[in-house]
Amino acid sequence: MAANQSPWPREWLMTDERCGDQLWQAIEALPWGAGIVFRHYGTPLHERAALAERVASLCRDRGLVLAIAGNVELAQALNAAMIHNPVGNPALVPVSRSAHSPKEAAAACSSGASLIFLSPVYATRSHPGRQPLPRDTAQRIVADCPVPVIALGGMNRARFGERQADGFYGWAGIDAWLG
Predict the structure, then answer these.
(1) CA-CA distances (angstroms) from residue 86 to 41, 111, 120, 170?
(2) What is the DSSP secondary structure assignment for residue 148, as one 8-state letter?
């Protein structure tokens, strides 16, 4: 691998309760080496841990990279490759951060994030009514970030193709993987 090549996947599934039973189909649709950011913030802790354990097992079986959102202890227990927006001290585990503005992206970069998920690039069901970032703003954020930036918000493979020239390293979605 070249020194300037990122080890992180270029395609990601962001999970949440909206996935329901389609979560398993979405994971099946991911290509080998893709990533999953396991969120499910609204699921009670015990159920969330059991669900995350099942997702972690599928990640190992399918060659997928797992990031656990928020919960450092759960991420460490499941040997996740990354912690997304950690609450607490992530110790030596790489961190990804969400950003929705130039200020948030700069803060994420200065906090030592290994990967930035920038949103919304397009209008999205996840945040109805929220305006997408202007294209020039997104391009400026990507250019200013010293780490890979993943496009999020209304994304799919075709839209990433349209925006890859903006400097995005990869893309993430929910609905794109739900079929």
Answers:
(1) 12, 11, 20, 21
(2) -
